[in-house]
């Protein structure tokens, strides 16, 4: 939905796509983003999956967040909006965050990250803790304790990436939500168009094809690098984990490790809600997140 205000997935969008769109030139290509509001910066990082963009992840909550913060919705390289990238999309996303903040001259920011974006934000907060004032994650960040891995939604994502059909896209979309009514024809069509764009699909296969996923798993087992989920104690920023109780992509038991290891972490679980907490539990999620972001956390713990 470009440049049109109105109802999106049952939510009123008050901000215009084209009027909020911005570009930032970097040595690795042009990063595109949306900017709205004034005040302290708030960086919003989107998830992965067919047809995802930062705008589509956050368009339903951007107006409310921008009443309090200078919101910056970054479009990761390789997802069809910012310039394409070489290498693994997750690695390029991490590089893009640093390039983006440096390019805008921002030394420190609060960050909201959805799914993959939550992992990228968590990794950034581990690597550069002084640059993150507060951290909010939406599912994803952690490690399965009881549920089998990968989750149902990830398996369906791999099936689509290996052999993209409209039917497989619909099955994957339904795994993202608790309420199937959210998956409208409009949503399906906009996701399908971007997900099947040749370059975007080629880059997605570096991350979510069954072959790439298996290779990444073997590499992780052979690596002597400590995984991010075992370094959560390095994060100094107050951190809010938000999770849908009925998440079929990253089951809620993944929150147990971060809930224990984060020095200043807290967890809020939303009932009757899947992976897209900011969409399915919109009002409750906004109230919870805004209260957390606006709260005075100057104390040292």
UniProtKB/TrEMBL annotation:
Q: Which organism is it from?
A: Rhodococcus coprophilus
Q: Name one Pfam family in it.
A: Abhydrolase_6
Q: State the EC number(s).
A: 3.7.1.8
Q: Which GO terms describe its molecular function?
A: hydrolase activity
Ranges where the AB hydrolase-1 domain occurs: 42-284
Which PANTHER family is this protein grouped with?
A: AB HYDROLASE SUPERFAMILY PROTEIN YCLE, MONOACYLGLYCEROL LIPASE
Name of the molecule in the record: Alpha/beta hydrolase
What cellular-component terms does GO give this entry? membrane
Which of UniProt's keywords are assigned here? Hydrolase
């Amino acid at each position: 939905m470009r440049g049109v205000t109105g109802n999106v997935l049952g939510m009123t969008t008050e901000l215009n796509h084209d009027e909020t769109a911005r570009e930032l030139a970097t040595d690795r290509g042009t990063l595109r983003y949306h900017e709205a509001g004034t005040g302290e910066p708030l960086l919003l990082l989107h998830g992965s999956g067919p047809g995802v963009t930062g705008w589509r992840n956050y368009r339903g909550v951007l107006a409310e967040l921008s009443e309090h913060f200078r919101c910056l919705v970054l479009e990761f390289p390789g997802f069809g909006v910012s310039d394409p990238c070489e290498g693994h999309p997750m690695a390029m996303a991490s590089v893009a965050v640093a390039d983006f903040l440096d390019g805008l001259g921002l030394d420190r920011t609060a960050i909201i990250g959805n799914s993959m974006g939550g992992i990228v934000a968590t990794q950034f907060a581990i690597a550069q803790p002084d640059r993150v004032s507060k951290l909010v994650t939406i599912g994803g960040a952690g490690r399965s304790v009881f549920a089998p891995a990968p989750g149902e939604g990830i398996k369906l994502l791999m099936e689509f990436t290996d052999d993209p059909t409209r039917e497989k896209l619909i099955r994957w979309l339904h795994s993202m939500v608790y309420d199937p009514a959210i998956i409208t024809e409009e949503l399906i069509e906009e996701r399908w168009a971007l997900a099947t764009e040749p370059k975007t699909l080629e880059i997605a296969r570096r991350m979510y094809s069954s072959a790439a996923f298996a290779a990444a798993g073997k590499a992780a087992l052979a690596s002597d690098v400590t995984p991010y989920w075992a370094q959560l104690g390095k994060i100094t920023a107050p951190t809010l984990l938000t999770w849908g109780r009925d998440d079929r992509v990253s089951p809620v038991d993944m929150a147990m490790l971060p809930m224990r290891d984060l020095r200043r972490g807290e967890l809020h679980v939303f009932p009757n809600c899947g992976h897209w907490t900011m969409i399915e539990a919109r009002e409750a999620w906004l109230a919870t997140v805004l209260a957390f972001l606006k709260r005075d956390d100057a104390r040292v713990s």
